[in-house]
Each structure stands twice: as C-alpha cells, then as structure tokens.
Amino acid sequence: MGQIQRTNQSQLQRDTTQRTRILGDTIKAKYNALTTKFTYQKYIKENDLQFFHPDTIPDNFHHFTDQDRNQNYIQNLGNLGTPINRLLFEPRQEIGLTSGYHGFDDFYTGPDKIRYFDTRSPYSDVTANFGGGGRARNSIVFAVNDSTHLSFGFSYRNIRADKVLAFTQRGDRNVVNSDWNLFAYIKPKKHPNYQALFNITQMKHEIEESGGIIPPEIDPDTNPNNPDSTLFAYQDANVILTDAIGLEKRGGVHIYQQLALDSAFQLYHEGDYYEQLIRYNDSYDLGTIDSLIYSDTGSTTADVANRTTFKEIKNEVGIKGRTSKFAYSAYYKIRNLSRQNVSLPNTQKNTEHFVGGTLRQQISNKIFLKARGEFLLDGQYVISGNFSSDLFEATVTRTESKPTYLVSQYTGQQFSWENSFANEASDHIVGLLKLGVRSLDIKPSLRLSRLTNYIYFDTARLPQQAGSDIVLITPGIDLDWSITQRWTWKNSVRYSNLNGGSSNLYRIPEVMGNSQISWKNTLFDGRMIFQTGIDVHYRTAYSPLDYNPITQQYFLQDDFEADSFIKADLFLNFKVENFHLFLKFAHANQSLGRNGYFLSPYYTGPRNTLDLGMRWSFFD
C-alpha cells in the first residue's frame, strides 16, 4: 500500500506540511494517522529506530501494476504477477547458496518487508485495485496494540489476473496469487530490556503458462498481408501452451529477539525456518506446436512433472550497541540448507558459516557513514559502504557469491546439467547529487557495475558462465519542476552503456525514461485532494531475454527485437477523509493507431484499459 517514490527535499517539505495540514482536520478525533505508526525490523536491529505514518496523500495511488511499482525498469510477461527480471543490475545480498528461483520474489512478503505497528487503537487498511481485462490486486492489513508492550496483526494480499493472450471467458486466469502473514511485537512490562519480533509468512503463486504467441511465420491463421494481426490479437491470439501450470509456494517462521544490558551493549538472536517449493506440470505432443518449447527426450509424447524443494534453517547471534553518534554490530550466522529435486536420488545438504558486522557513524546532523561486511567461511563475501548528506549520496558494494543450486545441478524431464562454476563477483557503485534551484530539483546519478564470472542462461536455455567481464555504465537524471503551486512536471531518464568482452550477454534498453505532468488541488482544509495528469514511459528497441516456463528462467535470444515504444497513461487520484480512489486510462495512446508493445519476446503488454482502485483506512 505504501509506494516507493523518488522525492526531493523541497517536495518532501511541501508534502510534510500538507500531510500535517491534512491530518490536522482529524485532531478532534482520538485516533488518526498521526497516532498510528510503524517500523521494520532492520531499524530495531541496526539501532536506528525510525517510524513512519500511513500514507494519507493520494499522489501516484494509481501505480498498482508491477511495472508502475518498479518505475518501469523491469521486464515481465506483460501481466500482473508474471515473473520479474530487473533491467538495472543489483548486487546479490545473499552470498551463500540460494534455490535460484527468484522470478516471484516481489510477490512474497518476507520477514524484511513486515511492518510492525504502534497503533494505540485498532488499525485496518483495505485496498482493492481492479485493472481492465480481469486484473485485480487487493490487500488487507489489520494491527492492534493490546498494550504499550504488545502489538500484533496480520496482512493478506492477492492477485487475480485473467489472461492477456488466448483469453476464453472471464475467470480464465493467467495468475492466481495469495500472500499472507501474521506478526507480533512484544516488550514485557516486567522485563523492559527484552523485546522480540515474530512473524509467520506464506505465499502461493500459480501461473498458467502460455509459452507466448505462436510466431506469425508458422501460425496458420496469420494474414500474409498483415502479420501484425497475429502479434497483436491479444485475447484472440494463438499461444504455444494451453495446459502448462507453474506453481511456487514459499514461507516460514521468523523470530528476532534482543536483550539490552545497556545502550552500548546488547545481545540479539535471529532465527528462521524457510521453505520454497517449485513445480511445473504439462503434457506435450511433439507433433504439434509444443515442439517450440519441448525437445525429443526419447518419446514424441510425454508428461512433465518437475518438482524442487529448498529448505533453510538459519540462526544468527550477535552483539550490538550505540552511543549518541555511533552504532555497531558483530555476529555469527549458520545456515543449514537442503535441496531436493524429484529426479535426483539424494537430497543435497549443506551447512554455511558466516561472520559479519555493521558500523554507522553520524558525522553531523546531516552526514552519515555506514559500512557492512559479511564473510562466508568458504571464501565468499559482501562488503559495502554508504555516504549520505544533503548534497550527495554514494554507495559502494563488492560481492563474491556462490552459484545457486539451480545452475549447479538440475535434472528434469527436459533438461539435465551439472556444473562447477566459479564464484560470481561484482563491483557496484551508485552516486547521486541533490541539486535545487528555486522550483527546480535536479538529481544527476551514475551507476557503475562490473560483473565477473557472470552466470546466465544461453540460447539453448542452459546455464553458462561468461569468460570475461561485463561493465555496465548507467548515467541518469531525475528532474522535478514545480511549475506553479498546482502544476508539477517530474522526469526520470536512464542511459545504459555496455562494455567488456561478454557485454553481449547482458540485455538492457539503451534509454529508458519516465515523465509525469500532474495538476493537484486541495479543498476544504485538506479534507479533499485531487491529483490528475499523464504518465509517459519510453524505452528504446533492444533484444530482451526470452522466458523458459519449464525452469522459470529468462534466457538469451537473438531472433526477436522488441521495438521502441511510448506508453501513456491518463489518471485521476482522489482523496476525501480516509477514502482514496483512482481512475486510470492505461496505454491511452494505443487508440491513436499504435498496435501495442512487447516487454518480452512474443508476450505483449496489456492493451488500453480502464483501471479503478479504492482504499479505505480505519483508525479505530
């Protein structure tokens, strides 16, 4: 429900002033958004306690799709809940073994995303988003304090998305997702130096795989005089797969607890049990169009029933503390891991041992230095440092991480491999300047990444390792202009340049950009707010990764180029008291003669739709 937005300092001051004014109209009420706040575990663990209030401003409430929520800097299969591939490189934070299945990470509310509330009263928040074409994303959050020493609650989210391609009737689902969690915070009255956080998380994500549109050159229904009619048939499209089902379940139990001996010395423990299950089921006949996805493994017809289970038990113990301007931590962590593949005779088991620590120094009221290091005793590590001030921010990260279980060994009905890859390594630098001139805020930025031993899936859909480095240089700029008190123009542009001997293995558009022009007005002393305008996204042509539904992995292809495109959305966001509403005409420019656009080979993005969303917040 909260949305990540780029906010400059002057805009933050204006929004804070406006937020205070808006919330002021409920001052006569005993409970409101000012008496409701939440935090995340990391702020407690890092002795950097920060609280946030529920968002009461309707700005960008219409950003409900996966593309919107990631500033359009991702690749997916053109529908809510489809697997996500991030276009801008981000270094791995888990340097040990992982399952290798990360396409659905964004749809799982893990322990690091859990919000812990101080409500002083029962708090609930209900959001319902209905996109055209049978797409829906809904959520419920409830939290209550039994006392100042106990808080608990739950959240539930779901996605229901009808097919964009080969749709037959309403309820013909492409994606069905359910994600829920229970959480609690306790600080016993008789033992005020002890506090604990606890949560249970579960996600079930089911996707009916289509394999994409049948290419026009082999689709018998293609009009030879108009092949685009095949590529942009949408619900009438002919797709490769009709009965393939991918399923992922994941979840676990998490506890964090700490005991303060004094402010400069605390003991803590963090424990996790986590399980991830991945399945893929289908039946194929190589005498049909199925041969575009499946290969002959000894029979022209066969059933595919792949199943992989990954389990983790993790315990971390450490010491930490803080003074007025300095905070530190040091810890030891152990992970007991297992991976079971239905086609392999034995369960793989591994134990990993880590040591690590963090430092944070407040040089002045506005200048901070942070450092983090974690070392796996097998030789892998992650080291990062961050400098932040009013004028400049910079982060430097160096990682060396293990290859995943998936790329190291896999056996299934269609694929089988065993690899001894070297550790992946990366150097990643991000710098940002914060400049402001009257009503203009300018933030030039630079991302510099060097990837060594990069692991990818090749055109045969098999894992490979790059023989030389990849260097990705991405300068960018964010420019916000408050044209008048009510008119605002916001822009974000990223230019990417690839170098190095293996640069052809990384795929990203050369230019990606977002622009928004909006008009905003406040009425009745802040009780009512309107925001209306237009969002525009642009990206240049490139050869995106293709998608293999059997292993849920994006892989290299050189036969399909996604054309450059511009997508424009018209929107209206409205708020009155604690009720929010949005209306959006998505991809409005399609009605001006454009057929559509591709986010992945043979997967079109949604056609123009009318979207609607609502949100209710209750503070007592």
Q: Number of helical segments?
A: 5
Structural class: mainly beta
Give the biggest sheet: 22 strands, antiparallel, barrel
- Please bin the fraction of helical residues: under 10%
Mean pLDDT: 92
Uncertain regions: pLDDT < 50 for 5+ in a row? Answer: 1-28
CATH hierarchy, class = Mainly Beta
Please identify, by name, the CATH architecture.
Beta Barrel
In whole angstroms, how far apart are the ends? Answer: 19 Å
Report the portion of residues in β strands: over 45%
How many structural domains are formed by the residues?
Answer: 1
Radius of gyration: 25 Å
Instruction: Give a count of the beta strands, DSSP E runs of length 2 or more.
Output: 36
- Coarse shape: globular
CATH homology-level superfamily? TonB-dependent receptor, beta-barrel domain
Q: Kindly identify the CATH topology.
A: Maltoporin, Chain A
